[in-house]
Design brief:
Helix content is 59%, strand content 0%. By secondary structure, it is mostly helical.
Length: 158
Amino acid sequence: MNATPENGNGGPDPEQVPEQAPEPSVATTLSVEASAAPLLAQAGPGDDGPNSGEGGEWELLLQKLREWLNQGQLQSFWAQASKPVTLLAALVGVLLVLRIYGALLGAIESLPLVPGLLELAGVVWMVRYGVPKLLRSSEREQLLGGLSKRWKSFRGQG
């Protein structure tokens, strides 16, 4: 037997067939044409064209940027900021050197026995060369005089 109820004609009963929702249709089709003109050469905010309408902030920004570049403001800004830029570049360079130096020391420290051997070499050097110069008063005065002379020449006073 058939599971669908039938009316007298052999077809399904119209009262019991659920209605199907209509399929959605495309309301409009949007087509965008490619522009061969570069972005900076497109129409400004006051011109009638494809960019006129709501918004226009991008065009306004580009216009102000073009005016700023044409007035030579970039050169005066660079002249004012050259010293801070140089200091910033020097700071970045020092930080880079310190990072490389730290990585090199870390690599040496990770090798087995090397840190202990370097520490031993430092102790041997101190005992061999440093202690005899510090024991005698004449050698000590000569060493301290040489260090103070180097310090003054380093500071530009001697």
